[in-house]
Amino acid sequence: MSVVELQAKRYGPENTVQRPAIQGFVGALQGAKASRGIFITTSDFSGGAVDYANTISPRVILIDGQRLASLMIQYGVGVQKRSEFTVVQVDEDYFE
After folding, report:
1. Could you list the pLDDT tens digit for every one of the 96 residues in the chain?
2. Which residues does 13 contact at the CB level (< 8 Å), separation at least 6?
3. Sheet holding 59-63, edge to edge
């Protein structure tokens, strides 16, 4: 059985997640004998945090605020549809 751990941080846009936070999370993963982890933030990750996450085992998936919003919209989690519109294009073949 595979164990996946999750950590989420609600930060403002000016407060990025740094490498030490990812290192601490990796330590927690090892303590829980997790095979991978997912670290989510409402802000962004520093370059050092991204580089570190890309080179370690267990694997850690980083989800920043931009990707989180996209996933929420894609899967309809925590969002409501307010309006919908259709974009049309002239069918030039029709007029030939």
Report:
1. 788 999 999 999 889 999 999 999 999 998 888 889 999 999 999 999 999 999 998 899 999 999 999 999 999 999 998 998 999 999 999 988
2. 43, 44, 65
3. 4-9, 36-41, 59-63
